[in-house]
Structure formats: structure tokens, C-alpha cells
């Protein structure tokens, strides 16, 4: 099984995923997933734990075999899920960002003014210049995310993939990172695809949503995808979508036309917890 | 002045042939071990380094039985063990410890058999002591070019893979996404570690070679702010411990019991331990200074 992975010259379309299916340990995790991203768009890859978000990102990166076609209009920047950075690691934020430029090349990097300038620009783009000289493992979670985003951006990618970048962040850091990503997408005309199990934090900036459930995906504007009919079809059983105070909750239905009981422990499965229990 | 020099350097120190070879070979090995060790510690492969050092006993004892230079045995078995560890799962953290432990156990079992045969075939216990604890003063001048060649090979490996090694030590996923061949890089690093501990086995002994691999590197990583600086500092600390160890061992000829110099391996390992302990408060001071600098809003550019 091989993915047709095509990398084209930079173009307006940053990513096209066509009919991608992937298997892990004999189980089909993704089934005929198709969607696309244009430069400047912020797209949330939403789904519960185990829905296949990380698998899909790894297929796009070419790290996992799958069937189907992935077309990328330029290079990819990537921020993996939960990088455990040792505080004793003598790698400064600026060093890590620099490795985003040439970390795959052989040999020892020589001091270069151009390299320093690019690192400084990447750190400035994520408002992280002030901790350029700090050990990256000693930074807070939000600061580390900024450095990792700078690491991913320094190669001027067409597409920025982020795997659960908001996990383990406090609400303030979460909002700051979301705003930062929206700004980067707009200013640098980068397509941003970020996975999360809570869509609510992304609602103000998301142009589109890719909702994964049961191995299948629905893609489109949030208001078109996050609807009772679409998600019920995706999950294979009835769910309700409730909007409360600007937040979206996906609630397990009872199988009839009545909304399910909103009991937080058993029936309510807000997207931010990513569980759906019929 | 002359009195002081005589106090530090016992008469005949610099004119002694074996001492000069020990300073040269030991110094080369210390530099190689420090540089390679920095990557071993960065990548969390200290235990793998320790296991490879233990396994090299098998090579050393086997080469004694075969009648060839122990260095060939140390290196041959070390590199072979590194390959086996990779094949049976050294890449994943849990599998890595399991694979390392299993290969180490098997290697040591074989070493016990070889050492038994070596002991029963000779009336002297010198071979076993020499393999386990080294004999820097008995390294022949003919072995030095081989040490230089192997050391250069280990340094070439870490020099060539410097950036991929650093990136994959931060995150394998990050490195893979940047197009780094993470597995090949890991194997290359493991081979460099195997060569470094094999060289150390010649100078301070197979079971003590981990000290020279890990100790200076751990101290340097605690103190230095940049990876390049840490690598250079690890080499320097290892060199200082080795040269000072040779000097103290030479001087100890006049210490009690008089006429029996203390083993150089003891001094090198003791000095490495002292350096590591001294690095702890130094590292804490550096961290406090870095925090103050950060709070002051200063930033430094990337090198």
C-alpha cells in the first residue's frame, strides 16, 4: 500500500487530500478522506481521541503509508504533539529554530549572518525574540509552542501542520496561540491545518473544519459541517449539535428525534472532551 | 619554581616513553569519548553506552584467546552489539532498554566464558585485570595509529550527522518531518558510541569506559548554554581528567605503599566524578544567571 504523494511548486492550493485510507494494526483508521486547503486558510482538524487526526497528519507528512493521493503545493512545516523538552538540554530557542532551517543537512553549521537573520525573523513572527537565548526545555508550554511554530515556519512552508497545539495550555496561552496562528496564516499566506478535540477555541479564526469520526471526514465551513444531519451520518448514529453562548456542543442523541439528555458524565460529549457515548 | 615543578611532576615524567604514549593515546581517547558522549547523553543513550562498554569485555577477552590486539576485539564486538541492539528495538524508549539489557546480558555471559578460558589457560590474572580496568601505560606505540584512525572515524560520524543528531534528540517526529533518516542517524550514533567505548576500554578498561563517555559530557551539558559549546567542553573536561589522572598515577609511585603506583584508571574515574559533582552548583548558577538575563529582556542571536 502506497500513498501517491505529490509535491508541486508553490501554488494557491497548499494541500489536496483525495480518497486517503489508512490502516493501523489491521484496523481502518481513515476511510476515503478527501479535503483541500488554500494558502491563508486556517482549518481545524477536529475529532475525538483516536479519531485518526494524528494518523492523517502523519500520512500528509509521508511518515505513514496509506492509499489515495496527497498533493502539497510547496513545503510543509510541522509541530508535533507534546514534544517533551528536557530542561537540561543545552539547546536554546534560537538553536531549535535554526535547526528548522537546516536540521536535515549533514555537517556542522557554520556561523552565518543570513542564518542569524532568518532565525531572528522567525522568532519575531511568533513574538518569541525575548527568549531566544533561553534553554528551550526551561520555557513554559505556551512559549515552547511559539518556538516550535517558529521552527516550523523558518523554512517558509506553504502548509503548516500542528498536532494538538492547544493541548495542556491554559486558556490565555490557548487564545494567544490561536490568534498567532490566524495572524501567521494571513500575513505569510500559509495554510494552517491544526488538530484539536475542542473546536470552540478555534471558532473565531477557522475558515473551514475537517471533522473526523468513524474513520470518515466531513469538510467545509463550520456552520455547514457541524450540523446534526452531517455529524449523525458521520458517526453512524444520531447526535445533536447544540450551540450555547457561542460554544458548540456535540451531544449523543437517543436515536429518535428528541435531543439526548444533557448529562455531563454520561451523555454530553462536548467536542472539547472528544467523547461520544450514545 | 623548579621546586614546585618537581613537586607536581615527579622526576622523569616527560622523559618516560610509556607516559608519553599514555598522554597521547589517553588524550585522543578522552577527546573522542567526550564529543561522542555529549551526543549519547543528549539522546538519552547513556545506558546503551554503558551496555556497549560491558559487552566490549567479550571482544577484549575473545581477542586475547584469538591472539590478536584487544582493540580489534573491543571495536568488532561493540559495533556488532550496536547493530543487534538496533535490530531488536533500540529505537523505542521501552524497547530500547529491553534490547540493551538483553544484548548486554548475553554479551557479559559470553565474556564470563572467555575470561574463564583465559584465566585457566594462563597462570597470570593480568589479562582479566587489563581487560576490565585498562592499562594506559602498557599501550604500545604500534597501537596509536589505530587509535587515531578509529577516533577519527567516530568523530567523522558525529561531525557528519551533527545537525540530524541534534534535531532527533529534541524529537524524532520533528526530525522525520524535516526529512531526517531518524533510524540511520540513530544507528550511526550507536556505532560512534561503540567505537568510543572500545577506545576507552584500551585506556581505562572496559567496565570503566562509561565514566569517560558519560561523566564529562553530563558535566558539560549541565554547564554549557549551547550544544557546540557543550561538545567542546566535554572533550576538554575528559582530556583534563585523563592527563591529570596520568600525572597522579605517575606521582603515586612514591605514595604508600611505596614502589607501587596507583592505577591510572582509578584517578581518571575519580576525577571525572569530581568534575561531575562540581558541575552541579555551576549549572545551578548558570540557570539562575540565564533566568535573570531573560527577566531583563536580553536576547542572544543564534550561532
Taking the alpha carbons of the first and last residues of chain B, their distance comes to 43 Å
For the biggest sheet of chain B, the summary is: none
Strand content of chain B: under 5%
Write down the CATH class of chain B: Mainly Alpha
Mean pLDDT over all positions of chain B: 85
Structural class of chain A: alpha/beta
Using the 3D structure, state the CATH architecture of chain B: Orthogonal Bundle
Query: Structural class, from secondary structure content of chain B?
Result: mainly alpha
Overall geometry of chain B: globular
Oligomer: heterodimer
Set out the fold topology.
The complex is a heterodimer of chains A (278) and B (303).
Chain A: E1 4-8, E2 13-24, E3 27-38, E4 42-46, H1 53-61, E5 67-73, E6 76-79, H2 93-102, H3 113-125, H4 141-153, E7 159-162, H5 171-188, E8 191-196, E9 208-213, E10 216-220, H6 222-225, H7 228-235, E11 239-244, E12 247-252, E13 268-270
Parallel strand pairs in A: 1-5, 4-8, 4-9, 6-7, 7-8
Antiparallel strand pairs in A: 2-3, 2-5, 9-10, 11-12, 12-13
Chain B: H1 2-8, H2 17-42, H3 46-66, H4 70-87, H5 93-120, H6 126-133, H7 143-160, H8 162-170, H9 172-177, H10 182-203, H11 209-223, H12 227-251, H13 264-295
Structure report:
The complex is a heterodimer of chains A (278) and B (303). In chain A, helix 2 (93-102) packs across helix 3 (113-125), helix 3 (113-125) packs across helix 4 (141-153) and helix 4 packs parallel to helix 5 (171-188). Chain A has helices spanning 53-61, 93-102, 113-125, 141-153, 171-188, 222-225, 228-235; strands at 4-8, 13-24, 27-38, 42-46, 67-73, 76-79, 159-162, 191-196, 208-213, 216-220, 239-244, 247-252, 268-270. A 6-stranded mixed beta sheet of chain A has the order 6-7-8-4-9-10, with helices on both faces. In chain A, strands 1-5-2-3 form a 4-stranded mixed beta sheet, covered by helices on one side. Chain A is 27% helix and 29% strand. With 278 residues, chain A is an alpha/beta fold. Chain B is an all-alpha fold and 303 residues long. Chain B has one domain: ABC transporter involved in vitamin B12 uptake, BtuC (Orthogonal Bundle). Chain B is 78% helix and 0% strand. Chain B is globular. The N and C termini of chain B lie far apart (43 Å). The model of chain B is unreliable at 298-303 (pLDDT under 50). Chains A and B meet through helix 2 and helix 3 of A and helix 8, helix 9, helix 12 and helix 13 of B.
Amino acid at each position: 500500500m502506497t500513498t501517491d504523494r505529490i509535491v508541486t511548486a508553490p501554488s494557491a492550493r497548499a494541500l489536496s487530500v483525495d480518497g486517503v485510507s489508512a490502516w493501523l494494526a489491521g484496523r481502518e483508521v481513515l476511510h476515503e478522506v478527501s479535503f483541500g486547503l488554500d494558502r491563508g486558510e486556517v482549518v481545524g482538524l477536529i475529532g475525538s481521541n483516536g479519531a485518526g487526526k494524528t494518523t492523517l497528519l502523519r500520512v500528509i507528512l509521508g511518515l505513514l503509508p496509506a492509499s489515495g493521493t496527497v498533493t502539497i503545493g510547496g513545503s510543509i512545516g510541522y509541530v508535533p504533539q507534546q514534544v517533551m523538552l528536557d530542561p537540561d538540554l543545552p539547546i536554546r530557542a534560537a538553536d531549535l529554530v535554526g535547526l528548522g532551517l537546516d536540521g536535515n543537512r549533514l555537517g556542522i553549521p557554520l556561523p552565518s549572518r543570513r542564518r542569524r537573520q532568518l532565525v531572528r525573523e522567525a522568532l519575531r513572527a511568533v513574538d518569541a525574540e525575548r527568549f531566544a537565548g533561553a534553554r528551550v526545555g526551561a520555557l513554559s508550554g505556551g512559549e515552547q509552542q511559539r518556538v516550535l511554530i517558529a521552527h516550523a515556519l523558518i523554512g517558509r512552508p506553504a502548509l503548516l501542520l500542528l498536532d494538538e497545539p492547544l493541548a495542556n495550555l491554559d486558556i490565555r496561552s490557548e487564545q494567544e496561540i490561536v490568534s498567532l496562528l490566524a495572524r501567521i496564516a494571513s500575513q505569510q499566506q500559509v495554510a494552517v491545518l491544526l488538530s484539536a478535540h475542542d473546536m470552540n477555541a478555534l471558532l473565531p479564526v477557522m475558515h473551514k473544519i475537517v471533522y473526523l469520526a468513524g474513520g470518515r471526514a466531513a469538510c467545509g465551513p463550520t456552520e455547514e459541517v457541524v450540523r446534526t444531519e452531517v455529524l449523525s451520518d458521520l458517526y453512524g448514529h444520531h447526535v445533536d449539535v447544540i450551540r450555547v453562548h457561542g460554544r458548540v456542543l456535540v451531544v449523543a442523541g437517543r436515536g429518535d428525534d428528541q435531543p439526548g439528555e444533557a448529562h455531563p458524565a454520561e451523555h454530553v460529549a462536548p467536542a472539547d472532551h472528544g467523547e461520544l457515548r450514545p | 619554581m623548579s621546586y614546585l615543578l618537581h613537586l607536581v611532576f615527579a622526576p622523569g615524567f616527560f622523559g618516560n616513553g610509556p607516559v608519553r604514549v599514555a598522554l597521547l593515546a589517553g588524550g585522543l581517547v578522552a577527546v573522542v569519548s567526550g564529543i561522542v558522549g555529549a551526543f549519547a547523553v543528549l539522546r538519552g543513550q547513556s545506558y546503551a553506552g554503558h551496555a556497549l562498554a560491558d559487552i566490549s569485555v567479550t571482544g577484549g577477552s575473545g581477542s586475547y584467546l584469538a591472539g590478536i590486539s584487544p582493540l580489534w576485539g573491543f571495536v568488532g564486538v561493540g559495533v556488532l552489539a550496536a547493530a543487534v541492539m538496533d535490530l531488536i528495538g533500540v529505537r523505542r524508549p521501552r524497547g530500547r532498554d529491553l534490547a540493551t539489557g538483553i544484548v548486554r546480558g548475553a554479551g557479559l555471559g559470553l565474556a564470563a566464558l572467555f575470561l574463564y578460558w583465559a584465566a585457566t589457560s594462563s597462570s597470570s590474572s593480568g589479562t582479566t585485570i587489563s581487560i576490565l580496568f585498562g592499562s594506559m601505560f602498557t599501550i604500545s606505540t604500534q597501537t596509536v595509529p589505530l587509535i587515531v584512525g578509529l577516533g577519527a572515524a567516530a568523530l567523522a560520524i558525529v561531525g557528519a550527522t551533527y545537525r540530524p543528531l541534534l534535531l532527533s534528540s529534541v524529537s524524532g517526529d520533528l526530525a522525520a518531518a524535516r526529512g531526517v533518516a531518524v533510524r540511520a542517524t540513530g544507528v550511526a550514533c550507536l556505532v560512534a558510541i561503540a567505537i568510543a567505548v572500545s577506545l576507552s576500554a584500551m585506556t581505562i578498561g572496559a567496565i570503566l569506559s562509561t565514566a569517560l563517555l558519560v561523566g564529562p559530557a553530563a558535566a558539560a551539558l549541565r554547564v554549557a548554554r549551547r550544544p557546540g559549546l557543550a561538545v567542546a567542553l566535554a572533550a576538554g573536561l575528559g582530556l583534563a581528567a585523563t592527563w591529570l589522572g596520568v600525572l597522579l598515577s605517575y606521582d603515586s609511585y612514591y605514595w604508600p605503599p611505596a614502589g607501587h603506583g596507583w592505577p591510572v584508571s582509578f584517578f581518571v574515574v575519580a576525577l571525572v566524578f569530581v568534575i561531575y559533582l562540581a558541575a552541579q552548583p555551576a549549572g545551578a548558577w548558570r540557570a539562575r544567571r540565564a533566568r535573570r538575563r531573560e527577566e531583563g529582556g536580553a536576547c542572544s542571536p543564534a550561532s
